[in-house]
Every structure is written in structure tokens, then in C-alpha cells.
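Narrative of activities, Objective 1.

The group set out to show that a structural description can be obtained from nothing but a protein's sequence at a throughput compatible with the screening campaign. Below is one input-output pair from the validation batch, recorded exactly as produced.
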Amino acid sequence: MTSAAPPPPGDGGHDDYDELGFLADNAAEAGLPFDPGEPPLVRRTAVDLPSGATISALVWGDGPPELILLHGGAQNAHTWDTTALALGVPLVAIDLPGHGHSSWRPTADYTPASMADDVAVAAGVLAPGATTLVGMSMGGLTAIALLHAHPHVAARLALVDITPGVDRQKASAVIAFVAGPPTFDDFDAILERTIAHNPTRSRSSLERGVRHNARPNPDGTWSWRYDRRSPDRAATMLNRTDLWDALGGLSHPLLLARGSLSPVVGNDDVAHLNTLRPDARVVVVDGAGHSIQGDRPVELAGLLRDYHA
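Output recorded for this entry:
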């Protein structure tokens, strides 16, 4: 476990932010049914860790959660909103340490292995009977480390556009975006940078994402909600040969969803995966970049539903 962490900086002028107020827009853009009179049951909750830190999460539905969703680096649990709406089953979307509403770590250490134990605690409290663990990008690497150390957390694993073979070249576009300015003059500035780096997404979708993932500072500038103190965030997820070994040693059924427009998972990665795990199912999602849950959320939900069933 990590040592006790200070809470993230306050939300400045973000008091009017309603994190569950965009779900109708998510549904409308994806062509999903949405009844304003009976909106989906979603609640924000937190799990206290032995270190004194907290893991925050969104709990969907009122039954025992069936899936656990882990977002990518520099994202948060809301990246899954449309996919969760399309799935329509009880699930938990967790904010990884240093992201969303979860505590920041004093050490700014966010490697997959270092986060796995904290996520295991949260999963045990919020979704002790979950069947499927889903991880996208950094969340996928964390999911591998999690099941390697705590195989009981879920019965099967789904990776969203990630393998341990990711390197700086494959992830160069992601790294370039995350390595941007620490603050922005206003909301429009942070939104325009996001739009420029995400050509496969609609403006409305990205605006919702930025509302969830950024906040105003007391001086009127805007900054990202996740912890940016790590001197080289990319190093926490690149060249993870240890995770290839961990993935090869798992007995859990495995699904890999690749975005057809994403360079993050290469054919060499799939070939190596097939060598280690010839039972793995690999599916290419047409028209999706790295964030399949953002580009093709309904299609991803269909894949996960079939895999989870």
C-alpha cells in the first residue's frame, strides 16, 4: 500500500458541476433510450484504504456489480458512461489512484503494479462477486497486474486497446497529448487542445469528457483533474515485459479489443499474445481509435456483453 496521500487540490469555481447531469446527452448521442423520469441509478462512493488514502468509484445499478471497469491514464471513471448506459447491468467504474476523485499519492507513483493492491481493496468492497474485469490502456496494464497478484478479483479479463508491448512510438500521440501545458487560460482553451488531439470524437463528447476531467482554479485558469507530478508519466506504462509474463501466467479467459485506427496495439503485439495465450480472443473495432469506449461505446458494450454472458 502507499503512504497517506493529501487530497487533490480543491475544485475552485467548479461548484456548479453536476457529474451525473450529462447522462441524457451521452444516451442521445449514442442513440440509446433514456427516460428522464427514471434515470439510471448511479452513485459516487469512496473506499478507505489502510494507507489513509481513498479510492473513488461510480457504482451503476442496485444489484451486485457484475463488471469492474478501469480507465486509462489521464482519464477517469466517466470515460465509461456511455458504455455503461449501453450495457445496462450493475457495474463499478473505478477512479485509479491519482485520477478523478481518488487520492493523489505523495510519491506520484502510478505504475500498474503499485496501483493493483489499492484497486483490489476497492474491488473487494464494491464488487466482491464481479465476473469480468475490464481495463483500458493504463487500466488494462493495471488489470493484468491486479489479477496476477489477486486472481480472485474476477473470473475473466478484457483489455481495451492495450498490451504490455506498448512503447513510445506506438503511444506517441497519447504521450504528446498528456505532456501538454499544466494550466490553460480558460475552459475553451483546454477543450480546443483536447479536440485537436482527438479527431475521431465529436465536440459534444469531448466537452463532456473535459468537464469530468478538468476543473477551474481560483485564479480562473483551468487544469486537469489527474496528478501530473510524475516527471515521466509515460515510463509508468511502457516496456512492461514483466506484465507479458504476468499475462501469460493468467488462467482467466482473455478478450483484447483493438481500435482499427489506433497504433497502440501492433500486429507484433497480437502475435506475441497469441504465442503466450493462444486461447485469447482478439477483436478489431472498426472506426475506433485508442479510446474505444469514447469512439465506439455501443459496439464495445456489445462485445463486453457477449464476452461477459
